[in-house]
Structure formats: C-alpha cells, structure tokens
C-alpha cells in the first residue's frame, strides 16, 4: 500500500500537469483573441488564477520533497520542482508574448474601425486601461516568480552546506576507521608473537623436565646399581 506522502506527491504532480495544460490552453486563446478588450481582460484573469493554483501546488510538492526521509528521493523531487518552476517561467514568457500579439491585433482592429468612423478617443482610453491592467497582472506574477526563485536559491545553498557537512563527517569517520584498523593490526601482531613465545616456553619446559628426569634416573641407577 502506498504511503500517504507518496499519494500526496502523485496528486501534486497530476494537478501541476493539469494546471500547466490549462494555462497553455488559455495562452493560446489569448493569441487567437481579436477583441474586444473585455474578452482579453477576462482571459488574463483566468490565466492569473491558474498561475496562482499552479504556484501553490509547486510549493506543496517542494514541501513534500523536503519531508522525504531518503536523500535520493528528496533530490529527485527537488529536481522535479525545479523543472516545474522553469516551465512556469516559460509559460509566463509565453503569456506576455501572447498579450502583445493580441494587443497588436486589437490595435489593428481599432484602426480599421477608425477608418470606418469609430470613436478613436474612447477606444484609446479603453485600450490604455486594459494595457495597464494586463501590465499590472503580469508584473505581479513575475514578482511572485522572482520571489520563488530567490527562495529556491537560498534552499539550494542550504542543501550544499548540508552536503559539505556530511562529507566532512564521512572523512572524519574514515580517518577514525584507518586509526582503528592500524590498532587492530598491531594487536594481531602482538597476539601472534605471544603465541610463538608461549610455544617456545612450552618446549623449553619439556626439555628441562626431560633433563631433570634423566638426571634423576642416572642418580638412582648409580645408587642402586653401582656395578652397572
């Protein structure tokens, strides 16, 4: 059975893909939009909402990555988060270009209406207001992305510091292991030397005992059998 955390990660990824596709579809609608300005404003409002939802899900995925127990799984999820952020930034750029394309189309349509006797002053005023609203929305979204990227850089620096500390700990442990290995080898040599010395001592004791017994037998023989 999948862990709740894994289910949450999967759901986040699915919704990120969903919102990304919806954003792309809305951006394409903006490219195809030829007016009026109210329609463009409505599309931009929808895009802004989808970006907010997308950003929220990416933040949830990033938090889930930080809560992973295994470092390998954590790094994989953080890389996915980074890819999603890059994709969102690319969508922001496409959004801005689509707005420019749409505004050019609307401007061309306004020029055509002007030639047909339209009210130029009213149209310019409406266009400026729409441009101001769109520019404000895009600026706000870009500021949000900039803030997220700044947080990501800070988190990457913290991760690098953690890796450096881990490497230092591993090096210290390796040095300690080498020291212990040298001590073990010295102890092994001492034990081997002790075993050899013990064997030599046993041989000397046996030789001394044999010499002692031979001496005793010789003395007994001379005492009891002097004629032999």
TrEMBL record:
Q: Which positions are tagged coiled coil?
A: 37-87
Sorted alphabetically, the Gene Ontology BP terms of this entry are:
retrograde vesicle-mediated transport, Golgi to endoplasmic reticulum
**What does the entry list under GO cellular component?**
endoplasmic reticulum membrane; SNARE complex
For this protein, the parts annotated as crossing the membrane are: 203-220
State the Gene Ontology terms under molecular function: SNAP receptor activity
Using the record's annotation, list all stretches that form the Sec20 C-terminal domain: 134-224
The UniProt keyword set, sorted, is: Coiled coil, Endoplasmic reticulum, ER-Golgi transport, Membrane, Transmembrane, Transmembrane helix, Transport
Q: Which domain of life is it from?
A: Eukaryota
Q: What is this protein called?
A: SEC20 protein
Specify the species: Crocuta crocuta (Spotted hyena)
Gene from which this protein is expressed? Bnip1
């Amino acid at each position: 059975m999948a862990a709740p955390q894994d289910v949450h990660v999967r759901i986040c990824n699915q919704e990120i893909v969903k919102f990304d596709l919806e954003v792309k579809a809305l951006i394409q609608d903006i490219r195809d939009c030829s007016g009026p300005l109210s329609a463009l404003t409505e599309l931009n409002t929808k895009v802004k909402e989808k970006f907010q939802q997308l950003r929220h899900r990416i933040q949830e995925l990033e938090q889930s990555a930080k809560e992973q127990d295994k470092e390998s799984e954590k790094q994989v999820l953080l890389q996915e988060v980074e890819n999603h952020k890059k994709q969102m930034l690319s969508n922001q750029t496409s959004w801005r270009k689509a707005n420019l394309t749409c505004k050019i189309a609307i401007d061309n349509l306004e020029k055509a209406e002007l030639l047909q006797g339209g009210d130029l002053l009213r149209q310019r005023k409406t266009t400026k207001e729409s441009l101001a609203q769109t520019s404000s929305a895009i600026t706000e979204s870009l500021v949000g992305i900039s803030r997220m990227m700044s947080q990501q850089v800070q988190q990457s620096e913290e991760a690098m510091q953690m890796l450096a500390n881990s490497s230092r700990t591993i090096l210290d442990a390796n040095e300690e292991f080498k020291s212990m290995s040298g001590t073990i080898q010295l102890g092994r040599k001492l034990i081997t030397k002790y075993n050899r010395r013990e064997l030599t001592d046993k041989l000397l004791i046996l030789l001394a005992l044999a010499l002692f017994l031979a001496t005793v037998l010789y003395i007994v023989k001379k005492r009891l059998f002097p004629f032999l």
